[in-house]
Specification:
Blueprint: H1 2-6, H2 16-38, E1 74-82, H3 90-97, H4 101-107, E2 122-132, E3 135-143, H5 151-158, H6 165-171, E4 184-189, H7 196-199, E5 207-212, H8 219-225, H9 230-236, E6 252-257, H10 275-310, H11 321-324, E7 335-336, H12 339-345, E8 354-356, E9 359-364, E10 367-373, H13 379-387, E11 396-402, E12 405-411, H14 418-423, H15 433-453, E13 458-459, E14 468-470, E15 476-478, E16 485-486, E17 493-494, H16 509-514, E18 516-517, H17 519-535, E19 540-542, E20 548-550, H18 551-559, H19 566-572, H20 590-603, H21 614-636
Parallel strand pairs: 1-5, 7-11
Antiparallel strand pairs: 1-2, 2-3, 3-4, 5-6, 8-9, 9-10, 10-12, 11-12, 13-16, 14-15, 17-18, 19-20
C-alpha cells in the first residue's frame, strides 16, 4: 500500500495540480490507516445508554451510537429484536425497522409474513449500516402512538436498546417534554462495520450483529451461542481481556461474525419446558431427594453443633454502607433479599413479568410483589420508606444489591397508577363519586402524615397521578420518594429544580420561578390531582382551540369570576360520573362537584401563604365524603 502511495511523489512538476492532489490522498490515507489501527474496536457503553443527558463534546461516545471507525463507510449489518405486543409479525417488525419484509422472513426462516409469532421470540434484522457524521447508524422512522411515550421508553422499550435516548433527542426537533401522538421521529439504530483488525483475524469478520444483553448473559455464553471466540467478542466491545465481563441488561454488544447469522442462533426467551421434560426433571429431583435426605439431616445437625461450639458469628449478606446508613433499627418485615430470590420470583425478569422499563411483577412467599431496579442511588428512597409506616404510603418490603444496581421490593397494587386508571374509559368502577373522593382522601391523608406526623416531616416534591397507586379495592397509596426532602432546618428553602416528564402540570409557581420548596408545593400538586379526579382530564390537556394547556390554568380560566357557579361546574364533571337512579333519572351531583372544585382551587392559590394546609384539606374532604355517602344511600334505597 505504501509503495503505491509513494509512486505519486515521482510525478513531473508540469502535473503539479495532480501531484498536490495525490499528496493529499497519501497523507489522508496515512491518517485514516493509523486512526483505524489505534481505535480498532468499539467501546462498550455500559449503563450510560440509560441516561438521556449524555454529552459527546470530547469525541464520539458509545452512549449515543457506535463510532465510525470501520474500514468501510457503509456495510450490511444485523440487529437482534425480540417480539412484543404490537410488533409480533414479520410485517409489523419490518415496518418498525424500515426493512424489506421478504428479507426479514428469509433470514429468520419464516414462511408467513402475517403469522403472529410467540412473545419474546428473537428475530435477526438485516440492515444497511452507514457512517453519518461521527456515528454508524441504520435509519428508520417512528410515529408516536400515545401521550405516554418518551424518548426513553421509545429507545429502551419499543426499540429494546437498539437506539438511545440521547441520539433520539439529537436527531429530532421535539423537546423531550413536548412529545405528542402523531409526531414522526427519526430513529438511528445502533450498528457498526468491521474494522481493519477484525477483517484480518483468523475468523475474517465480515459482519457485526448488535445484540441486546439479558439478565443471565455473559461473554462466554454469548460467544458460545454465536460460535465466536470469547476473546474476539471481548475485543470487539473494547474489553481488554476475555475475563472482563462487567456487562448489564438492556445494553448492547457487537457480535463479530464471519458469515450471516442463522435462524438457529435465535431463541424464544422464557419458553417453558414441555411436559415430558418436566416429568423427567421431576423424576430426577424426587430420586435425588430420597437418596440424599439422610445426608442432609446429618449435615444440618453437624452444622448447627459446630456453629454453636465455635462461637463465631453467622455470616450474613449485607448491603453497602451507604444504603445501611439511616436503617439503624430494621423492622421485622423489612428484608435484604438475595438476587437469586428476585430472579426466581420474576421468572428471570422475563418480558411477561415486566410492567415497565425497569419494573417487574413477581411472587415472593406466595405474595405478589413489585421489583424495581433503581440503579446505585436508591439509598435515599430506602431510608425514607423504611422509617415510614402509614396505610397511604407504598410499602417497601426489602432491598437487594447486585452488580452495582439496587433492587427494591414493593407491595403489589393491582389497579396500577391513578393516571392509567382514569384513562381507562371502559371501566364502570370509574363512574362513582364515592371511589374518587376516597382516592382523593387517601392521598390527602398520606400527605398529611408526611407533613405533620412523620419525624422529621417531609415534602414529597413529586405528587402526580403517575405516582399514586391503587389497590384492588381502589385504595390509594403514594409512591416514588426519590425527590422527597426533610422540612428540618437547613433542609428546606430553595432547591435545584428537577422536573420529571410525568410531573409537568403539577408544579407550584414558586417552585418553577425560584425553586422554593415547602409543604405548600405538595398542596398545589394535590389540587391538580383533585381536578383530575373531578374532570377525568390529564394534568396537561387541550383548551377549546386544541392547544396544550395546564389543567389548573384551564379550569381557573373557565371558571372566571363565577368560580363556583353550578352550571359551569357541571361542564367540568367527568361524564362517567353521571350516575343514574334505579328508576332512570340522573342524580344531580352539582353541589358535590362544586365543593370539590372549590377545594381544589383553594389548593391552587398562586400565593403559597393563601393555600390550605393538608390538615384543612383532609377535614374538608371527610365532610364531603360523608355527604356523598348520604346522597348515595338516599337515592339507592
Amino acid at each position: 500500500m505504501f509503495q503505491t502511495q509513494l509512486q505519486f511523489l515521482t510525478i513531473k512538476p508540469k502535473n503539479i495540480s495532480t501531484f498536490n492532489m495525490n499528496l493529499f490522498h497519501f497523507i489522508f490515507t496515512l491518517v485514516v490507516f493509523f486512526t483505524i489501527q489505534s481505535h480498532a474496536q468499539q467501546m462498550y457503553s455500559g449503563n450510560l445508554v440509560l441516561d438521556c443527558n449524555n454529552s459527546d463534546e470530547m469525541g464520539a461516545s458509545p452512549a449515543f451510537l457506535y463510532a465510525c471507525n470501520g474500514i468501510k463507510p457503509s456495510c450490511p449489518a444485523f440487529l437482534m429484536f425480540r417480539t412484543q405486543p404490537l410488533y409480533d409479525t414479520v410485517m409489523t417488525i419490518s415496518k418498525l425497522m424500515s426493512v424489506d419484509h421478504t428479507s426479514l422472513a428469509r433470514i429468520n426462516n419464516i414462511m408467513e409474513s402475517n403469522k403472529i409469532l410467540p412473545l419474546n421470540k428473537e428475530l435477526i434484522i438485516p440492515v444497511t449500516c452507514s457512517c453519518i457524521g461521527e456515528y454508524y447508524q441504520a435509519n428508520t422512522t417512528f410515529v408516536i402512538p400515545t401521550d405516554d411515550d418518551t424518548y426513553f421508553t421509545i429507545a429502551n422499550s419499543t426499540y429494546q436498546g437498539l437506539t438511545t435516548c440521547s441520539s433520539l433527542m439529537r436527531n429530532n426537533i421535539y423537546d423531550q417534554y413536548d412529545l405528542h401522538p402523531g409526531q414522526n421521529l427519526q430513529v438511528p439504530l445502533r450498528c457498526a462495520c468491521p474494522t481493519v483488525s477484525q477483517t484480518q483475524t483468523t475468523m475474517g469478520v465480515r459482519f457485526l450483529l448488535t445484540y441486546l444483553i439479558t439478565w443471565k448473559d455473559s461473554l462466554k455464553k454469548i460467544s458460545k451461542r454465536f460460535n465466536v471466540s470469547t476473546r474476539d467478542l471481548a475485543l470487539a466491545n473494547g474489553f481488554s481481556s476475555a475475563n472482563e465481563n462487567d456487562i448489564f441488561p438492556f445494553t448492547t454488544l457487537l457480535v463479530p461474525l464471519s458469515n450471516e447469522p442463522l435462524s438457529s442462533m435465535t431463541r424464544t426467551l422464557g419458553q417453558k419446558q414441555n411436559l415430558s421434560e418436566k416429568r423427567v426433571l421431576i423424576g430426577v429431583i424426587v430420586g435425588s431427594v430420597l437418596a440424599i435426605l439422610c445426608c442432609l439431616c446429618v449435615g444440618c445437625f453437624l452444622w448447627k453443633r459446630n456453629r454453636k461450639n465455635s462461637g463465631k458469628k453467622e455470616i450474613k449478606w449485607v448491603l453497602p454502607k451507604d444504603i445501611q446508613l439511616g436503617i439503624a433499627s430494621v423492622d421485622q418485615n423489612f428484608k435484604i433479599y438475595r438476587f437469586e430470590e428476585l430472579e426466581e420470583a420474576s421468572d428471570g425478569f422475563s418480558l411477561q413479568n415486566r410492567l415497565s422499563a425497569s419494573v417487574y411483577e413477581g411472587s415472593l412467599g406466595g405474595k405478589k410483589v413489585v421489583i424495581k431496579q433503581m440503579g446505585a442511588n436508591a439509598n435515599k428512597e430506602v431510608k425514607i420508606l423504611q422509617k415510614f409506616n402509614h396505610f397511604n404510603l407504598i410499602g417497601l418490603y426489602g432491598v437487594c444489591e447486585h452488580d452495582k444496581a439496587c433492587f427494591l421490593v414493593y407491595e403489589f397494587m393491582e389497579n396500577g397508577c391513578l393516571k392509567d386508571w382514569l384513562a381507562n374509559k371502559t371501566s364502570q368502577e370509574n363512574q362513582t363519586w364515592i371511589d374518587r373522593i376516597r382516592i382523593g382522601l387517601d392521598v390527602a391523608k398520606g400527605l398529611q402524615y408526611l407533613h405533620n406526623f412523620a419525624s422529621p416531616a417531609y415534602v414529597h416534591k413529586d405528587i402526580n397521578s403517575n405516582n399514586i397507586l391503587l389497590s384492588k379495592d381502589l385504595r390509594a397509596k403514594i409512591s416514588k420518594f426519590g425527590l422527597a426532602r426533610s422540612t428540618e432546618k437547613g433542609q428546606n428553602g430553595n432547591s435545584s429544580i428537577k422536573c420529571p416528564l410525568e410531573s409537568k402540570g403539577y408544579h407550584a409557581p414558586e417552585y418553577i420561578e425560584s425553586g422554593t420548596v415547602s409543604t405548600k408545593i405538595d398542596v398545589y400538586a394535590f389540587g391538580v390531582v383533585l381536578l383530575e379526579l373531578i374532570t377525568g382530564w390529564k394534568a396537561v390537556c387541550e383548551n377549546d382551540d386544541g392547544e396544550q394547556v395546564m389543567l389548573s390554568e384551564k379550569v381557573i380560566a373557565f371558571m372566571g369570576d363565577e368560580k363556583y357557579a353550578k352550571d359551569k361546574v357541571n361542564y367540568l364533571i367527568d361524564p362517567r360520573l353521571q350516575a343514574r337512579q334505579p328508576l332512570g333519572f340522573v342524580i344531580d351531583h352539582g353541589e358535590l362537584a362544586t365543593r370539590l372544585v372549590k377545594l381544589s382551587l383553594a389548593c391552587l392559590e398562586a400565593d403559597p401563604e393563601r393555600r390550605l394546609s393538608m390538615n384543612d384539606v383532609v377535614s374538608t374532604l371527610m365532610m364531603i365524603q360523608m355527604d356523598a355517602q348520604c346522597l348515595d344511600i338516599m337515592f339507592t334505597v
